[in-house]
Amino acid sequence: MSAGLFALVGVFLLLVCLRVPIAFSMFAAAITYLAISGQDLGLVVDQTMNTLTTLYVLLAVPMFILAANVMNASTISERLWAAADAVVGRFRGGLGHVTILVSVVFSGISGSAVTDAAGPGMLALRMMRDVSKYPAGFSAALIAASATIAPIIPPSIPMILYALLSGASIGALFMGGVIPGLLMAGSLMVAVMIMARTRNLPRGVPVPLRNLPGVFGRAILPLTLPLVLLGGLFSGVFTPTEAAAVAAIYAMLLGAFVYRQLGAKALYAVLLESARQSAVVMLLIASAFVINYAITAEQLAQRIVGVVTAFELTPTLFLVMVNLLFLLLGCFLDAAVLLLVFVPVVLPAVKALGIDLVHFGVVIVVNLMIGLITPPYGLLLFVLSALGRVPLREIIRDILPFIIPLTVALGLMVFVPEIVLWLPRVTGFLR
Q1: Within this chain, do residues 245 and 394 fall inside the same structural domain, yes or no?
Q2: Residue pLDDT, tens place only, 278-306
Q3: What is the mean pLDDT of residues 39-61?
Q4: Distances 170 to 108, 262, 295, 383 between C-alpha atoms, Å
Q5: Which end of the chain is more exposed for a tag (fewer CB within 10 A), N or C?
């Protein structure tokens, strides 16, 4: 390891430990690397501005963020909750199943785990903890686990970023996430089913048959948005980037003109928050480009390819090793850092081994989402602790029973690639 690279790692870890924002920590580490290695500091501007201005796919990120925030500002979450409650709320632990089902539906709108947790998740926490008296830690832990589905079922902001790094088809990645997302939801429902019996969780109140048409009628328009997005992508009517704009416009029309919950003041607040969140994401991406320049200059990726070649690793064994490494790193590092900094390092080895980029992309995004709920650094745990005012220790105590089924689902995706690749092939995004 050169002195510059050693300084880069040291400065980054120091600043992260001091709780400096990730993007600024990455910029500072990259500038330190350039200074110590005697390179022009102007490369910071060159690696950020020149790259960002040529990547039109990044336009999808602020559009999906806007769509999710508009949905949260309207009555969308309540309508989806009522519809899901009518379907599965009557079972023992039914509100747990409702929470998972709402996350599945909302994942077809937001593409962000944090947005899912902060939007429908707060409604779920209120219903489980305050109304039905579920344990607070269990409720928050389940919400965090179910929120990990949001970036797997399309649309998905992390998959857009992975496509940017790898050159994989965004449409294929979106289609590849559908079955894995449903598998994750199914595994969580099994966990809730078991825990509902062991903890004697209450049954929900069945919705009378005469009320069902009204309940589903109120939710029908939000439920059509995922179908519009997937249908448009499948038919080729619009690209994934254009789908983001369609989602944002559709959400704004629903909130402003159909439900009349999005006035001028609320719209301004939504636009302001969406701009803030988009700026955070773009700063992360920009800082990652500079870090990736350092990684390229140090030829770390080529060294990993050499190690893989020397040890004659099979594709499956390599995938297992990478997933174990990322699961471990996810306990301590932010998912954005792992995606934007560490994934580019292993991509050359992935290509050298002939591993399908779509398969690897979906698997690694699922891995990173598990990292969001893994102590001690799980971001979703902190979000729900702060927003829901649930002690962090209670959430950590109850999160393990949900990490296990998600990890089992991840293992199935690693060893059975067709779970990811079948739908992209059927829909023509892969050959």
Answers
A1: yes
A2: 887 777 777 777 777 777 777 776 677 67
A3: 64
A4: 15, 31, 25, 28
A5: C
In whole angstroms, give the CA distance from residue 36 to residue 4.
5
Asked whether residue 224 falls in the same domain as residue 326, the answer is yes
Whether residues 206 and 255 share a domain: the answer is: yes
pLDDT tier at 183 (50, 70, 90 boundaries)? Answer: very high
**Bond from prior residue into 155 cis (ω within 30 degrees of 0):** yes
Same domain for 139 and 1: no
State the total domains in the chain. 2
What are 203's strand-pairing partners?
A: 92
Amino acid at 425: R
197 and 374 Cβ atoms separated by less than 8 Å: no
Q: How confident is the model at residue 416 (pLDDT cuts 50, 70, 90)?
A: very high
Residue 424 tokens, joined: 């992209």
Name residue 292's amino acid: N
The answer to whether 356 touches 421, Cβ cutoff 8 Å, is yes
What are the tokens at 57? 């796919």
Domain residues for 185?
Answer: 57-426
Sequence-distant contacts of 307-314: CB under 8 A, at least 24 apart: 308/349, 308/352, 308/353, 309/352, 313/353, 314/353
DSSP character for 201?
A: P
Kindly state whether residue 50 falls inside one of the protein's structural domains. no
The tally of CA atoms less than 13 A away on the side-chain side of residue 290 is: 30
Can you tell me the mean pLDDT for 224-252? 78
- Let me know: does 180 contact 366? Beta carbons within 8 Å: yes
Is residue 181 within 8 A of residue 158, CB to CB? The reply is no
pLDDT for residue 318: 92
